[in-house]
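Listing S7. Sequence submitted for prediction.
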Amino acid sequence: MAQGRGPGGHFSRGYMTEEEKANQPKVTGALLRRVLSYLTPYKGRLMLVLVCIAAASFFTLLPSILTGKIIDEGLVKLDFGALVKYIVLSLAVTLGANLIGVAESYINTWIAQHITFDMRNQMYAHLQKMSQRFFTTNNQGDIITRMTSDIDGVQQVISGTFTSILSNVITLVIAAVAMFRKNWILALIGIVVVPLFTLPTRRAGKTRWKFANESQTCNDEINGILNETLSVSGQLLSKLFGKEQYEYQRYEEANGRMIRLNIRESMAGRWFRVALSTFTSIGPMLIYLVGGLLMIKNGADLTIGDITVLVALLGRMYMPVNSLLNIQVDWIRSMALFTRIFDYFDIPVEIENAPDAVTPRAAEGNLSFEHVGFGYEKDRPVLKDVNFELKAGHSVAIVGPSGSGKSTIINLIPRLYDVDAGRVTFDGTDVRKLDLGFLRAQVGVVSQETYLFNGSIRQNLLYARPDATEADMEAALKKANIWDFVLNQPEGLDAMVGNRGLKLSGGEKQRLSIARVLLKDPTIFIFDEATSALDSISEQKIQEAIDPIIQSRTSILIAHRLSTILAADEILVVKDGQIVERGQHASLVAKDGVYRELYETQFSKAMLPPEEGVSELERYIWGQQPADEPFDEEE
């Protein structure tokens, strides 16, 4: 038929939309060579497919030719032996054609699957090398589409479009040759009529596709209404606002529109079949008419079997002709599919190892930012001339308003992005000159949005270090202050955490994340808002886990909680991408600058009131005791 499954498994149309016309790719020799490069490793099997297609096409048409023998030699001459012989031969040929078709389908599918296997692996490996910038600027759905449906479409192109072209061309050539050998006049009449068959097919196909598209849009709208209003939150909202009747009317109206569209689509198909049946009858009727005239009037060398063969061969030509008339559209769609995939392959790898990358034997953990400038977009700088140094074993807290560039600073350390100006050094070496694997092994990050895989606690821990022993995991969990929680689980380490860790509380996820980083045993620990979204009890448990790490490891803390910040050796205050203040808590509060403003608007929410009975140590912590005045630690 004129319509079927096209590249990507989408419904194939015999016409192009305006969007497709506007975005159709430029088919060049370079593009074709690139497409063929994926077929080259399988050229032996491709030749075998070509042979199978040719043989199957020939054997498929042979029963139509044998029909003439069955009529002339068996039925007209009343020769039962000949009748049986040609019937058996026709059945054998049909069986042979089907068996060859099965072999061709298997080989073809094998090739298509292996090509998509190669492309998926290549795409995944390429995407793994992309910088964080790629994933923050590109739509996640589009990335997944390239990996899944676009590459699946390649399989359909190879097993469907390419082989369909070969099969249709071979079928037409064999059928045309056979028809002209029988009678060139009738063959010519039949072939002239064939294009008429495509007119109702193309028109009805376009109409049905239009209705199907509108129906799908309406169906999407209905699904949206159902998802919104039948969810727990949606039902609660509609009840609280008294919108039940409104939502019912909205659903009823959309449902009515979809019913009307479905009826119109169905009726368009009915008229299509009427027109198709009429046009497919014209060719055979003309052959019967002209063939009968030639036999009756001119005594032409024609038999009833010959005319039957010509009619049968003509019927075999309808589908290939219609498919080939749409070949330009299918070809352009196929090339567009490859172009979309190649567009991703051609995105340059922004973060990669230098040719002379260095892998030090040991790491100390000294970190330095030297006049660092960076922007996610070249004309919009996020960091401007950032300078600071962090000695091994020390800690620094980075604070500042939202959007000031705090997280951007830490993203530059493991080279999730590369600096635009200046440099970041690790133990005196520019991080861009260090082996990427070595560098990232030295950096452990505990972020605010903890990501856990849908597996067990054990599997999530082993992601950091696959060779870790039970004792190693137990030690890490104890340091992260979550070992007791694991012991209370019936499955212990094998307890499932759920999709994205949804079976755990926020504090449990965060502590498990800390344990995972501890198991990695990095040189530098980074805590990015690790406690900002938690309740006070969870925060306390996490703080108890973080404090020993800060005391013993090189650490960077980004936090909104004052208790976390006070544990650092130095505080850096970032505003508008620059370090505007630095020092310790008391001295920064005394400056009456950005830090004091943050302190009064954010940190002071947890501040103790200056009441009687508050110790000098507590007053110092809350900025109410001058830093140079001594206090009694025993208090």
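Caption to Listing S7: primary sequence and predicted structure tokens for the chain studied. The first strand starts at residue 367 and ends at 374. The chain has four domains: 25-182+320-350, 184-301, 351-442+523-635, 446-521.
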